[in-house]
Amino acid sequence: MFARLLVAACLASTAFAQQWTPELQMQVKIVGDVVPSPDGRTAAWTQTRAVMETEKSEQITEIFTARADGSERKLIGRGASIAWSPDSRYLFYQSGRVLWRIPQGADAAGKEPEAVLDWKGGFGAYVISPNGRMIAFTGIEPDVETERARKEKRDWQVVGANPRNHSLWALLIGASSKPARISSTSKHVGGFTWSPDGRSIAFETRPTPEANVASKSDIFEVEIASKEEKAIAATAASESQPRYSPDGKYLAFVRSSVPVQSAGDDHIVLHPRDGRPERKLPNTYDRLPKLLGWSGDRIVFEEGRATRNAIYAMPVDGPPKLLYAPSGVLSGYHLNASATHLGFVRESSSEAPEAFMKSVESGEPVKLSAANSDLPNLPVGATSVLWWRSKDNTEVEGLLTLPVGFEKGKKVPLVVLLHGGPYGASTEQFLGRPGLYPLATFSSRGIAVFRPNPRASTGYGRDFRFLNLKDWGGGDYEDVMSGVDLVIRDGVADPEKLTVMGWSYGGYLTSWTISHTTRFKAAAIGAGVENLISQTGNSDIRNNKLDAFGAPWDNRDYYIQRSPITHVKNVTTPTLILGGEQDDRVPISQSYELYHALEARGIETQMVTYPRTAHGPREPKFQLDIMQRHLDWVEKHVR
Amino acid sequence: MLDANMNVRFLLKKSFSAGAAIVLLAGSGVAQAPTSFTPEFAMMFRNISSVTPSPDGTLAVWVESRNVMEPERSEVVSQIWTGRTDGSKRMQLTRGEGSSTSPGFSPDGRFVYFLSSRTAKQQIYRIAVSGGEAEALTAFKGQLGAYELSQDGRQLAFWGLESSPDDDKKMKEKRDWKVVDSNTSNHSLYVISAEADADGKRKPRKLTDGKFHVAGATWSPDGKAIAFEHAPSPGANDVLTKGDISEVNLESGAIKPVASTPAIRTGAIYSPDGKYLAYQKAPAPFKWAGERRFVLMSRATGDQRELPTSFDEQPNVIGWLSDSSGLLFSEGKRTKTALYKLPVDGPPQVIFEPRRGVVSGARMNAKGTWVGLSHETTDTPVEAYVMKVGTTALVQVSRANSDLPKLPVGKTEAITWKSKDGLEVEGLLTYPVNYEPGKKYPLILNIHGGPTGVFNENFVGRGTIYPIATFAARGYAVLRPNPRGSSAYGKTFRFANYNDWGGKDFEDDQTGVDHVIAMGVADPDRLAVMGWSYGGFMTSWTITQTNRFKAAVIGAGVTNLWSFTGTADVTSFIPDYFGGEPYEAFENYRKHSPITHINNVTTPTLVLHGEADVRVPLGQGIEYYNALKTRGVTAKMVTYPRQPHGPREPKFVLDIMQRHLDWVDKYVR
Hints:
The complex is a heterodimer of chains A (639) and B (669).
Chain A: H1 2-10, H2 22-26, E1 30-36, E2 42-51, E3 58-67, E4 74-78, E5 80-84, E6 90-95, E7 98-103, E8 114-118, E9 122-128, E10 134-140, H3 144-151, E11 157-158, E12 167-172, E13 180-181, E14 188-194, E15 200-206, E16 218-223, E17 228-233, E18 239-244, E19 250-256, E20 266-272, E21 279-280, E22 290-295, E23 298-305, E24 308-315, E25 321-324, E26 329-335, E27 341-348, E28 351-359, E29 366-367, E30 383-389, E31 395-401, E32 412-418, H4 439-444, E33 448-453, H5 462-465, H6 475-489, E34 493-503, H7 505-514, E35 522-526, H8 532-538, H9 543-549, H10 556-561, E36 575-580, H11 588-601, E37 605-610, H12 620-638
Chain B: H1 2-5, E1 9-14, E2 20-25, H2 39-42, E3 47-53, E4 59-68, E5 75-84, E6 91-92, E7 100-105, E8 111-116, E9 123-128, E10 135-136, E11 142-149, E12 155-162, H3 165-172, E13 178-179, E14 188-193, E15 205-206, E16 213-219, E17 225-231, H4 236-241, E18 244-249, E19 255-259, E20 265-270, E21 276-281, E22 293-298, E23 304-306, E24 316-320, E25 326-333, E26 336-343, E27 349-352, E28 358-364, E29 370-377, E30 380-388, E31 395-396, E32 412-418, E33 424-430, E34 441-447, H5 468-473, E35 477-482, H6 491-494, H7 504-518, E36 522-532, H8 534-545, E37 551-555, H9 561-567, H10 573-577, H11 586-592, E38 605-610, H12 618-631, E39 635-640, H13 650-667
Parallel strand pairs in B: 34-35, 34-36, 36-37, 37-38, 38-39
Antiparallel strand pairs in B: 1-2, 3-4, 4-5, 5-6, 7-8, 8-9, 9-10, 11-12, 12-14, 14-15, 16-17, 17-18, 18-19, 20-21, 21-22, 22-23, 24-25, 25-26, 26-27, 28-29, 29-30, 30-31, 32-33, 33-35
């Protein structure tokens, strides 16, 4: 009872909440990077909460620390991008444009943070050197000329000119010296890492920061003293994620297939630094490994695994072994500098995200954070994994969330939610998360949610992911429809109360769906691709259409036939259309094309645009509005 | 760049009223003046508009607009000038950093009413004709569009959008999502008294409820009624195609429709004797190429009758003759313009046609006895003129551009040729400065927008996007054709490119180029093509059909008719021209889109586009540019922040002129 009162006090606006609402979902905190200290005795992590007081609408991120046993939880303050000094005595973090360090440990009580770097230009990321005396970072000096041109209204933009390439910089900590540039400005530097002896830095580089050339990544190494650069891996493949072995003998990295394909087909490569030939390591299950680092002679990596993910270890002589595979989903995972501990965020369909750490070798994870322990203990619907065979017999999986208090035999309205990508997946993340789709609220309000992972989804291996390369709106659509049939056949969904929604590629597939079937009573499309020709002409990642479909001028009929807008005369479903006004990925013009066609045809539709918003809406008041609109649109048409 | 290369000086001058006024003057050292045309020089010419004679015909007011480009400014500033109708006693009436526009005389001729943005928001002001302090008549919170003074001068009608405290709050609180087509921005009609009440206030009376958008209004002679034009929303598609006319009774506030069909109706105006209301209508169904007829409504009986059509069926009404016997209108006539009289019972008659050049913006005084207008020719910059009705003598009243050096601009002449199918087509050919017969010159094909635009005989040295005079000064010939689809050649000609963009209109342009080559003027190996809007469509189309051009510049061009139709503010435009929505007439959209034929392009192409263009959205330029770039064709794209379909900020206009020059110099010279 006492606890209940406390909760009420904390959640003034939703006191005594009886069920999930979009407002309550906005109060769920997102836990970010969990970084254990090198000595394994403590860890730091971030928590992000939505602030929506009167004129505010922002996500605020704060840093917390706790001891490895979960005790002495402490708020450090606002900031992000946390890192530890090698001796574990300082915690580094960024707040605003300043990089700070704050003393930690027994003698740190009462000590103030001190500024390490105040960088006025563009900033990428920083890494502390192995001896703790330097930091390296990526960034670009302030662009005085552009600023002046803006003031003087001479701010025309020559497309693609003067890319804001980030260089590598090095800075001696605590000295009064200025950062020194250690890489050329002619290319853009992405991720990077120090060699264990502190003499070199291996870094990812590509022609410009533009998303469209992200696949043109190579790996170079620069010797800090001489600033001499040499290519480590610079082939037609995309090479990324350099990681030195602790003894400095190897550099491991990830290499793509040739030609690079946006669906992704990556493997780990071992590059001996003594000049011996490099070696491709055995394939991983999903062929999309994300490297955390080395632990002894093993490379630790994360990868999607159906509706979950897992941490693996790849010995230099392979094959990979599972290191940690919990029931649920991991994020914000880090290996500490001494490779003794893993930090991560864990959540499941029914458990809100929290920070954990565990020994790499053994033992149970210890919960560090209490980010969401104040939430009222409201039930969410049960979520289960379904699998079925699609029209062409391909096995497909998906998540079905039943309404809270579901009674077998009673058919309920169904929301079919289609994920983006297409190289993404619906996973067992917490249903109460804030975002665009109020899953917990749907389940609280008697609506079931079906989230299929049709072909092209990640987490099901390379071949499955490549199945819709030239087949958008084909097999993927059948995968979804056959899944919906199953949910109906199982007696869960009322076939007269079906709705469909999705963002990005999920918006594409939603548009495609309503132009090929009238079984859905309502649809909601967010930042959806409607016209593959104009999308390919406008998107910041147009190259990935070229690699998947061929160029529009060579394959015009495919582009026309597979564009939902081509079939718009078949649509009868009432459709809500949402999009961000600053979206470079799927420009808002895609949404207008659909909206104007539906308007002209007299189909019930509403379009809402969000200012200042890119491909994924971030401002909390917008997220809340979007959740509410999804809920209202569904309830208006199927309740 | 501006400071180093300009041969003129900016003089900073303090003004009495509102802070610093920036005056752009030719340097006193005329010796330093440029010796040949440059884009910078072109930007120094002032524009003229709203030339209005006083009721008794002794005075005139007009607006002079100049480009202000001192360090952090880039805008056009307009001020009101006055002078006697015999051309004497010119005086600048308004000053200040903000613009003053839309001047109108009080019936007694003592005051000039005008709009000014001297404070944050545009308001109505008046100032004594002799000068002095201006008095603000409104303190409208929001966007005040325009005003109209009653004929007895005792009341003013204005229309605008009151800002909603709710919207401001939503913006501040970041709840500013937009529901598309939720029409919350309709302008309403208001009336105020010309004289303040005992408390010194003029409280606006709101006459419409915001359920429709008010786009124009006019007073009945007795001041008892206002006829106003309205549309379902302020969206371009609605305003341009769904206008209606209603009349509001000032006493009762009752509103009755005068004309409401799906066709556009525009420009209502009462006869001085109050017997008629004249307006223009477009026949249904609405066609985007445009056709308008005058309708005369008897206010006694409500009977309406159409008057005979004009030559181009696109008349611009000037006003009623003082005896209510007919209307005056102006209309484009090939590369010129003419003024016409339309008697209430007869066909239109030309009353004035300049020997050279064009007249524009004609306005009548309140008594219907004088006309004010702007006049320019291909080699003479624009000035304000007045003309007494019944005469044909123009009297120049302004000297806006007379201090600028008279630099050679190249001779411009109208030429005609036969297109591929035998149709006669006309265009303007500007010869290079110091043209030598027998010598071949590089030729620029410049294509106008619309497609219902027209190249007419206005001054080639104007500071606009295409530096025609500078091209001529640098040894280029410029052909500006009026292909089928253009205005000023009659309705049949204007409607001749329906379902055929890129077809016979393209042939009209190309046969024009052939003709200039055959004349011995143009060098066939040194051709460039450029155009804005539909001109950008035709440019992007042209380089998919021929590789005869060595350079191309596409400004705000339509390149994909399909995606254009789904994203433009004029949603019904292409469906009208191409026989249906994309899902009804897809093959037309595919076939006539330049992007469909992008495989053929080899011409080095510069793509220019405004980032705030809702008419031809930026995506049209990007689609084309990215395709060229991916295919390895030499291409460059420049975008202009804050700019709608026509770039406005002078620094951008100057940059665009310079880029046109540089691109052509690089690939054609």
